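Figure 2 data, in text form.
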Amino acid sequence: MPVTLFPAPLPDACRFTLELSLIPAMRKFKIRCLLAVFILSGVWTQIGGATELQSSFSNRYQQQRQSYIELRQLIADHDLAAVALRRSEIDDYPLAYYLDYLLLRKRIELADKPVKLLRRVDDFYENHQDARLRRRLLSVLKNRTANLRQWVDYLVVAGQKNIADHPCDDLLSRVKTGRIKTFDKAIAELWANPSKHTSSCDEAFPALIARSGNVPTRALWQRTVALVIRNQLDDARLLLRYFNRRDRKTIESWINGVDSPAELLQSAGVGGASEHHRRIAKFLLRKWGRQDLPAASRYWARHGSNFGFGKKEVAAQVSKYAVLAAKLSMPEAPELLKSAPSDRDVRYWRVRMALRIQNWQMVLDQLDELTEKEGRSPRWQYWRARALSELGFRAAAKKIYLALAENFNYYGFLSADRIAAPYSIREAEPLVEENAIEYLRNSIQIQRAIEFFLVNTGWEGRRLWNQALQDATEPQLVAAATLASSLNWHDRGYAAIKLAKKDNALATLFPTPYENLVDTLSSGYSVPKELVYGVMRQESSFIPDIKSSAGAIGLMQLMPATAKEVGKKLGINVPRWKLTDSELNIRLGVKYLELVLHRFGRNPVLAAAAYNAGPHRVNQWQVDTVLPADIWVETIPFDETRDYVKSVLFNTTVSGWRIGNGTLTRLIARMPDVSPLG
C-alpha cells in the first residue's frame, strides 16, 4: 500500500509516494531533502507546523473564550447585572472591547431615556477608538429615541458627528419639533423617491404639505412619474390636484393608458421631450417590448428622437432589443440583430445565434466581426477552434486547442477534451515563512478576527481579517491562508490565497469542508459529492453566513422560499434565521440538487442552470432538437447563469480530481447533450 512521506507544505521535489518496503532505505534522502529546504529557501518546513500554528491560536484564550460566550448569552438574556460582576474574567481577552459594545448596545435598546447614554457612547469610543462601532451605537440610539417618539432627544443624537443618516426619521423629528416648515432641496428629492420611504416619511410628508401648502414643481413631477412606474396609481391620482389643467390631463392619460403602452406611446399624451416624458416613454417602451418586442423596437428606431433622446441613446436601445430577441429565441431575432447598431452584446449574440443553429461557417464569419481584443479571449478562441474543426480544418483547430489547454479554466478543460490532452492541473501548496508567522502572531487584528470566528461571529472577523491583510506581503498572505485553513475557516483561507495569486494551492482554493456530512448526504440523495462542492464554492466561496442582495442565504445560497419548500419534503421546519446553520443549509442544498437533477434527467448542466436561475427558466430554455452541451451553455440567455454554469462545471471537475486523489472525470463527461424534454 503506498504512503505519502511528506506533508503538503513541503515542495513538490520532496513529496513522494513509496512502497512500504522502500521506506527504510529512503530515510537518508528524506533528511537530505529537509536540509535542502532549510538551506536553500530559509522557510518554515516543520512537519505539522500548520497544526502547531493553529493550536497556538485556538488554545491561547480557551478559558477566556468560554467566559466571553457565557457573558454574551447573559447579555442576550438581559441579565446585565451578572455581566458586570463577571466582566473582569475577560480583561485580557482580544474581544473584551466587543463585549463592552454588546453590553452598551443592550442598555440602549432597553433604556426608557436613551439619550442619557450618549456620554457612554463617547466614553466607549475614547477607550477603544473604533469608529465603526461608535457609528452603530449612535444608530441604535437614533432608532430607540425614534421608536419612543422622543423627537427632541432624537435631534440631539442626530447632531453627533459621523452618524448614519435615517432620512425619514430625521425628517419626522424636524416636522414634529417645528424645525422645518417647507420643502428644501434634500426633502424634495426624498419625497420624489417613494422607494426610499418608511412609515416615518408617510407620516411626515402629509403634515409638511399641509403646513407649507405646496411642493416644488420638479419634485412633484418626479414623484408622480415614480408612482406611475411603480404602479401606485391611486397615490399618483392624489397628486393631480397640485397640477394645472393641461398637466393634469397628461398625467391622467398616463394613469388610464398604462396598461396599453403601444397606444399610449403613439398618442399625444406622451409626446414631449422633458425629463419626465422621457422616463415615462422608456417605461412604456419596456412594457410594450414585453408584449410585442419587434413592434416596439421598430417604433423606437423611428420615433425615439421625438422624446428628446439622442441618436446614441436610440441606437443603444435598439441594440438592447435585438439582443433581447436573441435571448428569447424569437423568429425575428436574426433580422433584428443584423440591422441593430453593432455593440459588444450585439456582436456576441450574432455569434451565439450562429452557434445555436450550428452554422459553423456563420460562426467563423461572426467571430471575424469581433474586435481584436474580444477575439483573443479564451471563450471565442475555443469557438473558433470548434468551428474550424467542424469545417474540416482540424490542424488549425488543434493548434488553438493546444494553446488553450494550458489554461486552468473551463475553456482550457474543454479544449483539452477535444484533443484528449492532459489538463493543466498542478497542485503545490506554498511554503510558510517563519517571519510571516510572527506577523500573524503579533497582529491584534488577526487575533481578534480569529476569536470572532471561534465564537461564531464570523462576519465581524472577516472585516478585521480583510483589514489586516490589506497591505500584506505575499508570504504573509500565504501564512494567513495556511492558518485560516488549519482552523477550518475556509472562506478566509480561500480569500487570502486568491490575493496571494497562488493558483496551484488547490487544497486551499478547493477545500472540502463538512466532509462527513457531505459524504452521507451525497450518498443518500444520489448527488455527486464533487457537484456539491462545485456549487458551494461558486455560491458562497465557503462563507457560511453570507447573504446575497437577492436574499439567498448560507453556504448553498438558498432563497428562504426554496428552503421552506425543500424543508417540507424533508419534514423539517425551516425558519429564515436557521439558514445560516451550515449543516442544515447543506442538507437543504443537497436535497434541492437532487430534485433538479431528477427533474432534468440527471444532466449536471441543466441542474446547475436550474439551481441558479430556477427550474421554470430552464424549461423555457429547452431545445427542439438535441444540442451539444457546450453550445447550450454558451447560449444561456442570462449572463449570470451562463457564467455560473461554467464555473460550477469547472469547480466540480477540480473538486472531483481532489476528492479522487488524482483520479479524473473529464469535464466533457459531465456535459451530456441537451435533449428536448419528454
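Caption note: Confidence is low (pLDDT under 50) at residues 1-48.
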